[in-house]
Recover the amino acids of this structure.
């Protein structure tokens, strides 16, 4: 993929993605069905699903363009009772199988006179432990970033000259939708390695009485933190419940602005030989869709259940770091 592409999804691709969801005689695929996605499929989708050029050759917002002023105002209307719920996990300070780069917290000035105390934070936040938002310069494919920007021209030791997290400085306010797939399956958590398919997302829409639409943030709960609390940490970089690559045409068709989960969105192993994280690759590079990784969706799932609704006003404000590939943050669900 070396040229910018328009926004139209070919009819044959839409038909193909529908085929993934509906089997013979219009019957839904079984829970065990695994739509075949190969490396060649992913390579094809890098072009056919691409949003390159859709919002102009100089675009740096990607699918955040779908969060319009009207969409923000609609989202504000979802804050009906004034309950605010954090969707960030507490940052892990101790090294563990799923936290190989723990949060560094150093107290300063202890033992010295004076009224004030301070501290220093150090954090390598990408990976499988810390709640964060991926900027669009976080990943590349064949030497190019989203919208055709050339990696070696735009990403240097000084940071990302294009597609950096600073482009999201004004914050994110839109409708958040929680898709609680663990609840859908009647379990506290999905076992690591469990793939989530389009049929699961659409089954949740029916269960929750809600439909994903343009400009929404979709948050997929597998119950990762509930499992960790019960059995302890494990190597989430090797085995994790998450989305199967076959969901990407659906996400693109629905106009999802940001995708997030309590893991790193991709099921691991991915099920696509030769492509370790197809969700990351397709969403960040082809679609220009930022990703929330490692959110803690336990509290918001409990509140959504109490409220009897799975949509809310979502507010997120990443750090204003010029050149940054992403940001730790504390996104909020406001009911």
């Amino acid at each position: 993929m070396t040229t910018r592409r328009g926004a139209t999804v070919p009819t044959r691709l839409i038909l193909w993605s529908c085929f993934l969801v509906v089997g013979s005689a219009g019957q839904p695929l079984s829970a065990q069905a695994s739509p075949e996605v190969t490396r060649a499929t992913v390579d094809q989708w890098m072009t056919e699903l691409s949003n390159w050029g859709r919002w102009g050759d100089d675009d740096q917002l990607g699918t955040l363009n779908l969060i319009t002023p009207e969409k923000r105002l609609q989202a504000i209307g979802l804050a009906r009772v004034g309950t605010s719920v954090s969707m960030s996990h507490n940052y892990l300070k101790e090294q563990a199988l799923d936290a190989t780069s723990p949060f560094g917290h150093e107290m300063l000035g202890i033992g010295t006179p004076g009224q004030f105390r301070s501290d220093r934070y150090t954090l390598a936040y990408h990976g499988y432990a810390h709640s964060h938002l991926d900027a669009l310069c976080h990943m590349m494919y064949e030497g190019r970033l989203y919208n055709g920007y050339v990696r070696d021209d735009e990403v240097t030791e000084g940071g990302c000259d294009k597609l950096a997290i600073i482009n999201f400085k004004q914050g994110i306010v839109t409708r958040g939708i929680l898709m609680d797939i663990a609840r859908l399956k009647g379990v506290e958590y999905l076992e690591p390695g469990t793939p989530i398919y389009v049929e699961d997302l659409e089954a949740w829409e029916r269960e929750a009485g809600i439909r994903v639409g343009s400009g929404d943030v979709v948050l997929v709960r597998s119950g990762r933190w509930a499992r960790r609390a019960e059995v302890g940490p494990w190597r989430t970089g090797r085995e994790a419940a998450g989305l199967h690559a076959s969901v990407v045409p659906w996400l693109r068709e629905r106009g999802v602005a940001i995708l997030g989960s309590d893991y790193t969105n991709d099921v691991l192993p991915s099920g696509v030989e030769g492509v370790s994280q197809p969700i990351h690759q397709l969403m960040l590079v082809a679609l220009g869709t930022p990703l929330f990784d490692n959110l803690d969706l336990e509290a918001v799932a409990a509140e959504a259940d109490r409220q009897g609704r799975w949509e809310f006003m979502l507010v997120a404000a990443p750090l204003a770091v010029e050149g940054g590939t992403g940001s730790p943050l504390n996104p909020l669900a406001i009911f």
